[in-house]
Amino acid sequence: MTESALRISLFFPVYRDEATVERVTRKAVAIMNELASEYEVIIVDDGSPDRAGEVADELARTIPGVNVIHHARNMGYGEALRSGFKAARYEWICFTDGDDEYDVDDLRRLIRLRDYYDLIITFRYAKRYSGVRIFISFVYNKILRLLFQTRYRDISCGLRMIRKAVADELVLQSTSPFIGAEIAIKTTVKGFRVGEVGVQTFPREFGSGSSTTLPNILATIQDMFRVHRTIFSPQYDRPLNRPEVR
């Protein structure tokens, strides 16, 4: 497979990202023009209370290949990702965040591995944010490795690429930021190939992120145990020739 044959959907959710949505969109279009034969860039406006949705609409009117999905109200990161997956049309789906903490240009690193993996996640080898957030991330990943028996270094890092056929198989439950971990865990359990690539992160220049707010932390914990109950139940993905356990 050559890079010229790459057909990819790239999407990112925005919430309070009025200041960065245009920058991320233009970066995404530039990298897609360079690497893909066919592409689409989808902006998911998750009921953003600022002008992020309006800016996204203007970008869609003026830049070919850019489309916008609007949520009438804020539905959470998990629902925003589900909307992006549902709208994506092409063989590969890349998804990232709308605050420009992850550079879309790093997608070229993920694309190099597409012949070897079905899901490519990233881990942060240079973390340019507060010590509190680094500590929360360390504890979170440690808990997930123990709870779900996985090996991933940074399971919820916000730049990923997945085969559409694999994404279509996943029944995702989370509405919180835990959905990133859920995608990697369920892809692993189903026997698909998961690879990791190192990336840097960059400080958020406008506003503050919401992933480490108390409501999101509580929602993440709730989703974590909900997904754990699902995966480690006798019913989950059992062999077809085995009767249902009651």
Arithmetic mean pLDDT:
90
What name is given to the CATH topology?
A: Spore Coat Polysaccharide Biosynthesis Protein SpsA, Chain A
In DSSP terms (H or I, runs of 4 or more residues), the helix count works out at 8
Q: Look at the helices and sheets and give the structural class.
A: alpha/beta
| Structural domain tally | 1
**CATH level-four homologous superfamily name:** Spore Coat Polysaccharide Biosynthesis Protein SpsA, Chain A
Radius of gyration: 18 Å
Main β sheet profile: 7 strands, mixed
Key structural traits:
246 residues, alpha/beta, Spore Coat Polysaccharide Biosynthesis Protein SpsA, Chain A, 7 strands, 19% strand
Overall description:
The protein is an alpha/beta fold. It has a single domain (3-231), classed as Spore Coat Polysaccharide Biosynthesis Protein SpsA, Chain A. It contains eight helices and seven strands; from the N terminus they run βαβαβαβαβαβααβα. Strand 1, helix 1 and strand 2 form a beta-alpha-beta unit. The chain is globular, with a radius of gyration of 18 Å.
